[in-house]
Amino acid sequence: MMGGSKGASRGARSVVLLVVAALSAALLVGCGTSTEEAAPTVSVSRPAAPTGALAPALQAKLRAALDVTMKQYEVPGAAVGVWIPGQGSWTTAAGLADVTKKVPVTTSMSWPLRSVTKSYTVTLLLQLVDQGEVGLDDSLGKYVQGVTNGDEITLRQLANMSSGNADYVGEAFLKEFGKDPDKIFTLDELNAFVLNQPAQFAPGTRKVYTNADTNLLGAVIEQVTGQQFADVLSDRILAPVKLSGTHYLLDVTKWTAPHPTGYIQGDGGPEAQPDNLSIYGPSGSMVSTLDDARVWGTTLAEGLLLTPATQAQRERGAPLQVGPPYDIYALGMGRTDGWWGHNGEGLGFTAAVFHDPASGATIAVFMNVSNAPDKAHPADQTFRRFAEILKSEAAT
Questions:
Q1: What is the model's pTM?
Q2: Which residue ranges does the record assign to the Beta-lactamase-related domain (predicted)?
């Protein structure tokens, strides 16, 4: 735990290395743009939750799957929800938000979205596509200078993880973070670590998941709109969809809503992880609530903030060669057995938010543990088990 005896012995470098795969960056450089505030691309109402409760027998199956998963991965606490139109809703909290203080999880708590943030960032990009402000086949170099192969990398390749960009977590970042694990990194500061770094591969030749791609898109969004990323997000998504419990936070002291502590399982039991939201940027610095996750799952998968043509483009994808286990990864969202959404992990938390357009069902899972053995993802595993139960129920 950072700041505690175990954290002191491990040091900041070892903490960072636990989440190397979950960090990345890019730097905004370019000519000035108008600071005039843009209107949201689409007006949309907040989707309502299904009325009533799911059948008791179905709730029992879901709860059993949750209990098995929590035991398997030694998850301290979880908040989950399943919403099915015409059948009802089920939300529940399990375990502890804070192991030391014995604080139980509640369904109203705020949770880190981690990489679910990517789905918001790419949605902002696609709104700009709908407005004619950018094109998916524009080169990154048109907006951001200093990135290796920037004149060849397209915005589409950034969104679908085929750019070939290097991750930024190297000696320079480790040294900076190690000096002050509580340092609040700006997007520009994070992104500086990826400039002029060797590419992993030629653009478009592979699909390797890296946060650097999404943070570069955050830089593009700021460049095109002339606004800070947080303001663009609020104006174009959070306010229109009434996601009042969802925020882009860099300064953890502003995370004032009740929220869990994140853990990894150490030799002596759960070890608390540092609260530094800023190390992720537009690839993972958002927090949200269970009900807001329900709303976002529907909004994302149904394309409620985009034109149908752009949503159709969004759904074109292919399997990742390195990264989370989606069947395909498209533009800022993945598909698993027909369910569209995103998962996330890092610094003691895992999350999964998915929606099935065929049935209209949505599943959201938040858990306060990360870095499980064999790179298992407890929240994603819970989602998959829930989805299989719903599939079996529908077949009977």
A1: 0.90
A2: 63-375
